[in-house]
Amino acid sequence: MLKPNFVTPGLDATSVSAATVAAATFAVLRDTVPAAAPGIAFLSGGHSTVHVCEFLSELNAIRERPWQVTFSFGRALVSAVLHIWGGDAVNIPAAQKALLDNCRSAADAAR
Predict the structure, then answer these.
(1) pTM summary value
(2) Which of 38, 49, 66, 82 is spaced 20 to 30 Å from 3 by Cα?
(3) Residue 34's domain spans which residues?
(4) Which residues of 29-47 are buried (b: 16+ CB within 10 A; e: fewer)?
């Protein structure tokens, strides 16, 4: 199992579409990862849950991809949740909803 980040522009670069990120990531993986590799689980690389789910969904849409691809980005799933919770018990329901929504988004992107 390989656990890379997506190929994304640098911090000072103009942002690009999720399809562009997926295409660049696929190109690098196609040239370096054997087709016999069983799967690739992506880290978030510090990107938001929304962005990494978009990247993963677009990568899954590439039909000639020989590997299974999924997520391994725990930080992206929980960082906003922890911010919502903020250590205050009153925020637990909202934080739980955000976590469930993030997990659903990641699961949908992995299909």
Answers:
(1) 0.84
(2) 82
(3) 18-109
(4) beeeeeeeeeebbbbbbeb
In a domain, 38, yes or no: yes
Can you say whether residue 65 is alpha, beta or left, with left for phi > 0 and alpha for psi between -120 and 50 degrees?
beta
The reply to whether 12 falls in a domain is: no
Give the DSSP H or E segment for 69. Answer: strand 68-71
CB 41 within 8 A of CB 6: no
φ, ψ for residue 21, nearest 5 deg? -60, -45
